[in-house]
Amino acid sequence: MHKYITLFFSAALFLCACNGKSVPGDVLKPEAMAEILTEMHIIDGSLYNTMQAPDSLYKYGAGKYAAMFQRLHTDTGHFNKSMRYYATQPDKLLAIYDQVDIKIKNKTDSLAKVQTEQSKTAHKADSLKNLNIKSKADSARKMHPHENPAARRADSLENLNNKLKTDSAGRFHPRKSKAARKADSLRNLKS
């Protein structure tokens, strides 16, 4: 048994020693592989956020993947060969996915920053719009009553209220607030 364990560790040591740090020339470099995997995961996320009918992932995804490979100057065959190589090198693949994770977080952070800026801009535009509406209303109130129909209506309502505030002898009695009327009624009760 001891002989088999020694043989196993010797073979594992030999395989690790033969495994060099350099990437073969026909395999994508780790930086390029990280860029491709980042774009692929973004495309996958966008495909799963759309309505999924039968064959829709293939129908819409194939064009997006082809455009991505063309934009990054590679093809599916080169990518698949590189992926098979990195699948046999888990430490290198893990380092690549660490880069992918950082790139996706950076893109998410920049997207959140842009959305925050757009929200602030929209809020500022709404505030300016409300301020503009308020200033137009104020300027309409300052117009001469004969020029502004709303002001004429307000004046006629005020005149009507003034007529209602006079008693039978024709004397003017200003309208009192609720608190003043309550105070008067309490004074009347005490006396």
Roughly how many Å is the radius of gyration? 40 Å
User: Would you identify the regions where 5 or more consecutive residues have pLDDT less than 50?
Assistant: none
Largest sheet: number of strands, sense, barrel closure: none
Q: What proportion of the residues form beta strands (DSSP E)? A: under 5%
Write down the secondary-structure element order: HHHHHHH
Share of residues in helices = over 70%
Q: What's the overall average pLDDT, rounded?
A: 75
Number of strands: 0
* Total domain count: 2
**How far is the first residue's CA from the last residue's CA?**
117 Å
Helix and strand topology:
Blueprint: H1 2-18, H2 30-48, H3 56-71, H4 76-87, H5 90-141, H6 149-164, H7 178-190
Helix pairs in contact: 2-3, 2-5
